[in-house]
Amino acid sequence: MINCQIPIYSSNKMHPYDKENVYMGKFYFDNCLIDHHDLSKKDEIINTWLLHPLLHDTGLDCRLLYWWYTNDSFDFNNTSQYQQLVNKYWPFTHVNKIIPFYVIEENCEYIKNKLTNQQLKISPDFLQFNTDVNATFGKLNKVILTLDYKYFNTVQGYQNYNLCTATGRPSNAWGGINLAALPPEQRVGVKPNNNQFVLFDYSSYHVYLIANLLGYSFPTKDIHSFFMKEYNITDREESKKLTFRHLYGGVPNEYKHIKFFQLVEQFVNDINNQYIRKGYVESIVYKRPMSANNLGRMNKYKLFNYLLQCYETERNIKVILEINKYLYEKKTILSLYNYDGFLFDMEEDCVDDLKKILQKDNFPVTVKVGNNFGEMNELL
Fold first, then answer.
1. Cα 107 vs. chain centroid, distance in angstroms?
2. What pTM did the predictor assign?
3. DSSP 284
4. 94-103 in b/e burial notation, b at 16+ Cβ within 10 A?
């Protein structure tokens, strides 16, 4: 049996995994079990759903389902009365304990109807995606990072991986801290709970993702040396800039003889033609429909970029599943995910084994170690 469920917490401000945020119950697709001052029974059943955005836990994630078909995030605070009361009682931390239950119920009914009107179908592809997201980003959302107060004005770094973005590339921000884009001066304030941090970074990840999509193998492991030779230049950084410019902005005539770019151009044209003809393209791994009705008109290179960022996330979900299986019953944990970077809070000596998992299918990684996230030294 599949349940759609959203956990309800007393506070909209506090992270659901903050111990002071009172868990009130869960809304299910057909009923609700919730603890509220207006209800005479702790497990009173009502025919409604949803109140608080779901941090991926278990069951069917309604927010993901809505985004899967609309490519849009879901607004959980929709009725004006509920929002007015949230604003009125904003100084109070546990606002959902104060707001009358009938207002919460009306808000839930509105959301239920909004989702019902979408006539969303629960496809096998979505079910697999939902399950895998629960097991990966759902688990990561429970990891609370240890922070240095002088850098963050808090000692706990709560995570909030949200895949409901235009490309499916997750954001990760909570309480004014954007863990997906920490500046270098703040990274030093992120500390391990075990022996040390180990950071694995994919090298030139998007280039290798594209090559993997196209079934193309570079003649050398140093792809930038390969491109330097093809461009007939000696500046490595300039070579990198040219490569990414050509991938996302089109290949100039002088470089169209390069086989890799020929294959890229063909792929870009193919997906663009499909997008125009069918009105959608499917994501690479989970076959999520990326519809023109939702994304609108875009040039072919922007579409290619969207699809590639989506592929990055979907492939990484599969990688994290394998990592979690390996780390089962170990003290070492994956503590932070950042697109092409995987930060481990390392206890056991797992570097070689984790490197094998991450480098599967010939995706090279660099490895760095350190006593904080900002001061990492490359492990040769």
1. 27
2. 0.89
3. T
4. bbbbebeeeb
